[in-house]
Amino acid sequence: MIRPPQAPRNALPSPTRPTRFHGRVPREERCAAPGCREAGEFRAPIAATRSPDGPPQYRWLCLDHVRAFNSGYNYFEGMSADQIMAAQTPTAGWETESRTFRPAGSADLPPRWADFKDPIDALGARFRQRMDEARRQAANPGLSREEHAAMQLLALPADADRAALRRRYSELVRKYHPDRNGGDRSHEARLGAVVAAYQLLRKAKAFA
Questions:
Q1: Domain containing 51: what range?
Q2: Which residue of 37, 105, 155, 201 lies most exposed, with the fewest beta carbons within 10 A?
Q3: Which of 82, 97, 121 is the last residue of a domain?
Q4: Is residue 205 part of a domain?
Q5: What does the pLDDT look like over 54-80, one tens digit per residue?
Q6: Looking at the 3D structure of the chain, how many domains does it have?
Q7: pTM
């Protein structure tokens, strides 16, 4: 019997489409582009200007729409020639100027958002998370902190009822179960978190 040729043991695997991209954040919410049903996993700024009293505003797009956004994005738009030259210097963005939070003779006022530099959006992301938590707790004060966290994990709105909880749970189980992914077990941790969140919420008084 003639055996088919086999690849050598040291052969490199065939190239596949990459699944990891810089800046990708796995999320359940859909892309902000109108009519798009893909998950919005890439952040894009809404406005070029930055408010001095709040974090920058962003929207979440899918891979295709964030690529389209990046292709038309011009960092130097609106800058003068001198500003463009200054932005291209090797030390641009690495200024170490220190500021005084309490100038002499001034009132003891809290610093504004513009007083801070947040290049990786650490402060802004935490601020938005706390605001979302506060809105959820205000909309449904009968839930504990753990129950609010479970609702956020399942991406449930504050006014969700027991039927909405069961529908969302069924959707996520179908999405992450290995039987629906060709035996792929890479989502088992996420599936376990979904099951734990559902078990917690289904016993909550708000979903009785």
A1: 23-82
A2: 105
A3: 82
A4: yes
A5: 667 888 999 999 999 888 877 777 788
A6: 2
A7: 0.40
